Amino acid sequence: MQANISTRVAFYSILTVLAVMLFIAAAYVNHSLVQKYRAELLNDTRTHLSLYHNRLFTNLQNHIQIVRGLPGLFAINPDLTQEQYARAVAHLVNSESEIRNIAAAPDMVIRYMYPMEGNEAALGLDYSQEPSQFEAADRARRTGNLVLAGPVALKQGGMGLITRIPVFLQREDNDEVYFWGLVSAVIDIQRFFEKSGLLDDQMPINLAIRGADSLGRLGEVFYGDPALFDDNSLIQTLKLPEGEWLLAAEPVDGWSQLPPNFWQQRILIYGVASALFLLLALFIRFIFAASLANIKFRNLIESSPVPYMLLNENKQISFINQAFTDTYGYDLEEIQSMNSWWEMTTQPKYYSHEFRLFAI
Asked: Which fold has domain 13-253?
């Protein structure tokens, strides 16, 4: 009875340990698959962020290179007329271009403009009197570098990015270098974003850009959701000639999203674990049932009044019951050390002394 209880306790203990181990294994596999998906999500987001970074950088560089060559016009002839200026830059502005206009501002006041049509309101604009534009314009003068300003609200309407490059000329009489003014090109921000792919409804990531007026972290967010800079979004820096932009990105559905087939995977994983548990439980039950049957058989033999002897696969004596010992007087150790137990069974140990005396 005690053996049966011990066997059952051992059986259920093993099943409990097995169930816990399989549950932990299934949870680990499930967690690993989710982590793998999120690692792939991170890599995909980083790849798309780099793609948009490169598009923005390439488009900006194309516009910047256009503006870099314009100061040469005034180096050759500081007293260009509006007509001469228009002929010189007309090929740079067309219906396919993202550039809305190209202006020149001697002494920080816009005096030259192309095209004139639609941009008349910008003529005579004094940057020193425009708080929203003066800082970036003056930074170009102070640093001598091209500065990308904006997005800004334009006098002629709409929003634009403005690339401004300072023009420094040399006086003929004493070779002194002096600040002549600024040359700027206004980029239509909607066309710029569209060409860079930022207005596509099917964008694979959520994207935001910080750094109005090329101020980087100190600048305002001018595209996308500002909240992207408050969480665990990927951040990439877009270097500008003077300053920088910061690009933040996250997956469209956020970082906490689960794999598309998450529940199917979970059901499959825990289903396999359950099936494996049932198979192992049946196997263990069979082993314990066989062991219990063997114990019952040995107990039956041990309590039997009939002498019993069991042989192993090598035909060696492995077990004798108490009736055998009581009948023949030999225990298991003594039988195993003898050459022939057949001889012993015909001469019980209790009468061996009398047999020896009789033989004398």
From this structure: Beta-Lactamase (3.30.450)
